[in-house]
Amino acid sequence: MEASLEDRLHSIHQRIDTAAKAANRSSQEIELVVVTKNHGYELALELLALGESQFGENKDQEASLKASQVAENLPAGQTAPTWHFVGQLQSNKVRSMLSYSSVLHSLDRSSLLKELGKQLAKTPEQSLDVFIELNLTDDPNRGGVELKDLMGFTEQVLAVPQLKLLGVMGVAGLNVEPAVDFARILKASQEVQTLSKTATFISAGMSGDFEEAIGFGATHLRIGTAITGKR
Question: Vertex 174, ends 169 and 175: CA angle to 5°?
């Protein structure tokens, strides 16, 4: 018999607590972002009822519709969730993304940064929390900023007043031990903090490797199928 959504969620929280204790950390400093992609808005409402409030999406067309549907169907008294955009964002989708998302985990190139600044300037009261996405591969065509370019790009991000740089985001490669890449992400985080003391957060760790990521300082876990199940 397949475990219920509540059971899967409870199991993940227990594993986060255990991994945090093993790393001499508090689970209170770790944010669980439940990745709800490929599921209907009803799942987000179920997760809200179970106490979750941070949801991740990776495609604007799906995310914008889902955010709207959730807003329209919120129970009385229920606070709306925070939407995190965790996928590669096309520049022509920036305006749409800004209409529902509060956090962008995948700021990965100068053209996207320029468009974010342009669109945010139209609403001076708005701001956006961002992570710089790292490219940990040897493929320059992959999303993410190459490590050799990280400091220069960080300076560009910090120059946009309506962006709040939270830190760095990375995905462990398929053909390496996760610890190797998580160590590189942690080192990149420490380098970024020499330019911005408040950019202390690390978005790393997914369903298959989040416990190891916690050991390397991850503060934001992007967990999907281990909680939501496959669709």
Answer: 125
* Pick from 197, 187, 185, 190: nearest CA to 221: 185
The average confidence (pLDDT) of the chain is 96
Q: What is the pTM of this model?
A: 0.96
Q: Which residues contact 157 (CB under 8 A, 6 or more apart)?
A: 107, 113, 130, 132, 163, 165
Residue type, 197: K
What residue segments make up the domains of the chain, in order of their start? 5-73+80-228
Region of 90 please: left (phi>0), alpha (psi -120 to 50) or beta. Answer: beta
Mind listing the pLDDT tens digit for each residue in 69-95? 999 999 998 999 999 999 999 999 999
Which pLDDT score is estimated for 138? Answer: 81
For tokens 């397949």, the residue is 2
- Helices 41-49, 5-22: axis angle to 10 degrees equals 60
In the numeric block, which tokens belong to residue 174? Answer: 């398929």
Residue 53 class from Cβ within 10 Å (0-12 exposed, 13-18 middle, 19+ buried)?
middle
Residue 101 pLDDT grade (very low, low, confident, very high; cuts 50, 70, 90): very high
**Which residue is listed with tokens 């400091």?**
151
Fold adopted by 5-73+80-228: TIM Barrel (3.20.20)
pLDDT for the residue numbered 159: 98
- For 134, half-sphere exposure in the C-beta direction (CA atoms, 13 angstrom radius) is 27
